[in-house]
Amino acid sequence: MSGHKGNPEAVAQKGREGRRNRLRGARGRGTLEKEKPPVFGMIQGCGLVVIQMLTNVRQVTIEPLIKSVVSPGTLIYTDEYGIYARLTEWGYEHKSVNHGGGEYARDEDGDGFHEVHVNTMEGFWSLLRGWLRPHRGISQERLPFYLGFFEFVHNAGKRGKALLHSLVELLVK
Q1: 83 with 62: CB under 8 angstroms?
Q2: Strands 105-106 and 116-117, sheet pairing
Q3: Using one digit for the tens of pLDDT, what is the confidence trace for 20-59?
Q4: What is the DSSP letter of 72?
Q5: pTM confidence score
Q6: Helices in 24-142 by DSSP H: which ranges?
Q7: Which of 103, 111, 125, 154 is deepest in the core (most CB within 10 A)?
């Protein structure tokens, strides 16, 4: 007779601990060298998104991407991460929330509407992770193609057969 001996709850608890350890990644930000490429994203209030795989997450890396798609003077909401410290120097208005301090949204004018937040982008990351999960083991070389396709589908705002026309339109251009 095979199987586990002892208390079934103890076996289940032991299994969870192992899983938790396996899922825990290395501390710090991902880089291409660590084989955990960072993905940078920006989303407009209307829902249009731009995402791109980066070699690393530094001001010198994100500045050209931001400047290529965001008009000067635009108000940008971010978290407190230090790479955003120069947004005002680059010509943008900037407000941030302090996730490390437990702040996730802020009502600055007292109207009951928490206008300063990054929840829209956080929600988008959840959608992207859920879509990528079944595609386990995507190589770094192919990840930009997956990201580009997901960005296109999200921005097209169509699903199923309705998306086909947009795809054909893009290919014909």
Answers
A1: yes
A2: antiparallel
A3: 444 455 565 666 665 678 999 999 988 899 999 998 889 9
A4: T
A5: 0.75
A6: 59-69, 119-132
A7: 154
